[in-house]
Amino acid sequence: MRRKLAAGNWKMNGTAASLAELEALKSLLPADTPDVVICPPAPLLFRATQAAKGTSIRIGAQDCHMQASGAFTGDISADMIADTGATYVIVGHSERREAHEERDRDVRKKAKSAWAADLTAIICIGETLEDHEANNTLDIIAGQLAGSLPGEMTPTNTVIAYEPIWAIGTGKVPTLDQIVEVHDFIRERITTRYGAPVAELIPLLYGGSVKPDNAAMIFQAENVDGALVGGASLKAADFGPIISALA
Ligand code: PEP
User: Fold this and answer.
1) Per-residue pLDDT of the chain (247 residues; tens, 9 = 90+)
2) Of 71, 158, 195, 217, which has the maximum CB count within 10 A?
3) Where is substrate bound in this sequence (predicted)?
4) What angle do CA 76, 53, 2 make, to 5 degrees?
């Protein structure tokens, strides 16, 4: 059975006071809770791991450097993230790809550096609005899968998040048919490259304007194993119902 996962990406939002939302989330977790990961800004990682102690909530970072250490002012290595007690890291988020000009090759290296520190990499892929409108989605996704996923990927070291860029933070969500089409395609591609045992177990998340009122619709897709949630993960009152919809 594939594990289900709800991951919250706080992006560049929140200070120590925001950890009250993590505290509040604890009491909203359903009995048969799926895996839950909160990815706060880096300065909050250690405090978040302390706040999550004794619960099933795991903590992740939003990015890591591809090198283990060195002269990279302002960057954070995977080892440093693991040292806070965090166990996940998002790599290749479209905001990093765009604002920091990260390419598939960089994402692949970051995933490997995450693994070297025993972190699970949440590898993000997704097409632009232009590619979506030109019906290029599957070609773009095929290219990103080929370029961003390292050959040594396993269901325990990696989670894949499909996030159409045009759906992130916009309130626009693909139709269920579109979500099904892309997620089925991703699972097929992984089967071809890694074999059925890997493909059947690797969690595939959908990301892009997931909210309490559309989560159940999205989770109907057989090959959607959870969500990567931005805005609606900031408040326990929003993220809790999304987690419950997955349970
Ligand atoms: C994200 O940042 O990964 C994301 C999906 O954001 P939102 O849920 O706000 O669209």
Assistant:
1) 899 999 999 999 999 999 999 999 999 999 988 999 999 999 999 999 999 999 999 999 999 999 999 999 999 999 999 999 999 999 999 999 999 999 999 999 999 999 999 999 999 999 999 999 999 999 999 999 999 999 999 999 999 999 999 999 999 999 999 999 999 999 999 999 999 999 999 999 999 999 999 999 999 999 999 999 999 999 999 999 999 999 9
2) 158
3) 9-11, 169, 209, 230-231
4) 80
User: Closest Cα to atom 3, ligand 1: which residue?
Assistant: 230
- In whole angstroms, what is the distance from residue 193 CA to residue 122 CA? 19
Measured from the Cα of 11, ligand 1's closest atom is 2
State whether residue 67 is helix, strand or coil: coil
For residue 93, indicate whether it is catalytic.
yes
Binding residues for substrate: 9-11, 169, 209, 230-231
**Is the complex ipTM more than 0.90?**
yes
Could you give the number of structural domains in the chain? 1
Question: Annotated catalytic residue: which of 21, 65, 93, 183?
Answer: 93
In the annotation, is 23 catalytic? no
- Tell me the whole-structure pTM to 2 decimals: 0.98
CATH number at residue 130: 3.20.20.70
